[in-house]
Amino acid sequence: QVQLQESGPGLVKPSQTLSLTCTVSGGSITGLPYYWSWIRQPPGKGVEWMGAIGSSGSTHYSPSLKSRTSISRDTSKNQFTLQLSSVTPEDTAVYYCARSVSVVTTTPTIRGQGTQVTVSS
Question: What average pLDDT does the segment 85-110 reach?
Answer without folding.
Answer: 94
